[in-house]
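Sample 3 of the quickstart, ligand oxa(dethia)-CoA:
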Amino acid sequence: MTLRAVVESVGHYLPERIVPNSHFEATLDTSDEWIRTRSGIERRRFAAEGETTSDLAIAAAKAALDHAGLTPGEIDGIIVATSTPDLTFPSVATMVQNGLGMQHGFAFDVQAVCAGFIYALATANAMLISGQSRRMIVIGAETFSRIMDWEDRSTCVLFGDGAGAVILAAQEGTGQNSDRGILAADLNSDGRYREMLYVDGGVSTDGRAGKLRMQGNPLFRQAVDKLASTAITVLQKAGLANDEVDWIVPHQANIRIIAGTARKMNISMDRVIVTVQDHGNTSAASIPLALSVGVETGRIKRGDLILSEAIGGGLAWGSVIFRW
Ligand code: UT7
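Result:
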């Protein structure tokens, strides 16, 4: 018997406030045209004052539970991927646990910045197929608006807030790559690239939350190479070929990175779920948000083969291939 971590449902939550590119034209030397053509972003959501990452995560988790017709009592583990927690500790995941009224099971956060959801999926997969858990909620939730330097036009126009959640359950498979569920994962990191994307404050340095700093152009070049390479590796690990992939559901940082990666993989853009125009870069939330939109719009269907890949601060990057 082979246990597989199978996605039972997906859900998301976006803050109400929609911020169009034109919002930035008033205070910065930028334009809607620059932001659209360089990144593909048209708008993003910003959390309301007092609205925290755990609020977003709880709403996304509730949506996923509703869609699956499950209650919190049927969940035994929660992982939240985030780099923008409400507090230094406790974890956002324990806040979600409490918000769902759960007094059982376990909950913890994973921090791999924009690759966080991929790391969280790989971790949940390991726990489910080893029998340590039977059903988990895996959430990507971020409020990157809280760590923007509003005077830095090269970063503050790119990011947004949101949350997405999937419910994964351990189910019996055949061991073949025709099974539903996670078929392979590939995780990588290289701390030598720390300066490319980081936050300039923290608990054991200056005690501040800090602001995001990014060397966009060099990171762009690293991103396309590393994303294509991890995608090819994960396909090899699963014994699958490019043309078997129904959907790429990538991290949504920049439409040019998404298109460049798809091109390197020889996969056409009509097999890619793109939400960057509406959400901006929501870091660890971007993949579950895109999965949720893909299902809501009727594109992703049961049995589809999905490849998700992401890269972010660290650098940390990776991919997961799964059958919906
Ligand atoms: O999620 C984690 C992973 N994140 C990424 O992978 C992001 C990777 N990087 C990118 O997406 C792109 O590099 C950016 C969207 C950040 C920038 O696009 P680019 O084509 O690499 O532009 P650039 O950084 O080379 O800048 C081109 C020009 C510069 O002006 P000069 O030096 O040519 O005069 C910038 O100062 O664009 C200028 N610029 C802007 N102009 C108007 C930078 N930001 C802006 C702006 N509005 N908001």
